[in-house]
Amino acid sequence: MKIRYIRLLIKILSVIMLVLLGWLVVHLYRIGVFNDTDSLIKLLKKYGIWAPILFVFVQIVQVVIPILPGGVSLAAGVVMFGPWLGFLYNYIGIVLGSMILFWLGRRYGRRVIDIFVSEDTLNKYMDRLDSKGWYWTFALLIFSPVAPDDALVLLTSLTKMTWHEFTIIILAGKPLSIFIYSLGMLYGANWLLRMFGH
Known about the structure:
By secondary structure, the chain is mostly helical. The protein has helices at 2-30, 37-46, 51-64, 70-108, 110-116, 119-125, 134-143, 149-156, 163-195.
């Protein structure tokens, strides 16, 4: 009898947490945190020592909900926390988000993938998913800062790749792409202006 009540309590608490998280995501979206670097930095400054935790949460959300632009938060992390801590917080958030996304794809399959992955991306990669070379294809694409990482994670969740293999690729492949992308977002425009004499 007690076990049944404990399970019921856990389910109720889980629903409450999901509703609160949903409200928080909607609130953050409305104040522009996911599409404006300045809005994100202003919000983070208000939270002092809690800013890194909030930032990691924002990064997880932008990975799990692939319709949100990741470039905003990558650049904000470097601006707000500096190159090393910014990189670290970006890395933690993106890795955790990728693992949650992989789990969602494994758990719900095409139902969740069809929502977030465009038909063009599906058509581009679907034929290669069952091939023996997908492990290396996925690894090389994850190293690239311009590949559609979130879509690739969801597609890979349909394959026979193990959790262990997936985790190794994400842990090893993400640092380079995060480093290049975040620094490119910050300094690319200034470098181009100097190159052309402006």
